[in-house]
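Session log. Operator J.P. requested a structure for one protein chain; no other inputs attached. Running the standard single-chain path with token output.
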Amino acid sequence: MSSFTSVFRDVYGSHPLHLLTLTAGFALFTYVLVTLGPDGLWNPSTWWQSIAVWFAAAIVAHDLVLFPLYSLVDRVLVAALHHRPATITTKASVPLINYVRVPLMGATLTLVVFLPGIIEQGAVNFHAATGLTQAPYLGRWLLLTAALFGASAVAYGVRVARVAMKPTVSES
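Structure written below.
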């Protein structure tokens, strides 16, 4: 039995109970959807039901779509940064990965939060409510993204300089 578990763990990436738990959770979720039906889940006259359904859908969308997507992007990023040419490396290597991950994550999060404004969704209502347009959203998001990557590049440069200036201890 332990050989099955180890082979399963190598292929799946986790213990078989993990898959069993996920399957049971999705079965329960499907049962609730089928039993209650769309009318029971989405009731515009009861505000908290709509918010609860939106929140549950956001969790499911994150776990089924976004998490695998940004995990794949991270794997590609790690693979690309680990196969750098030898000319880029310094004598005291400073890993670049987190100096790319953090601003990329910040840029992605702000894109998701401000996407309706960036693509000017609801422009008529926005203009009626504020008297402004949504035109500056894209430019401001691009500036914020540039600032995040710029600050990360400066932090990386400072870290590389500090490591390069640190005296090396010779082994005797």
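Operator note: The chain has a mean pLDDT of 83.
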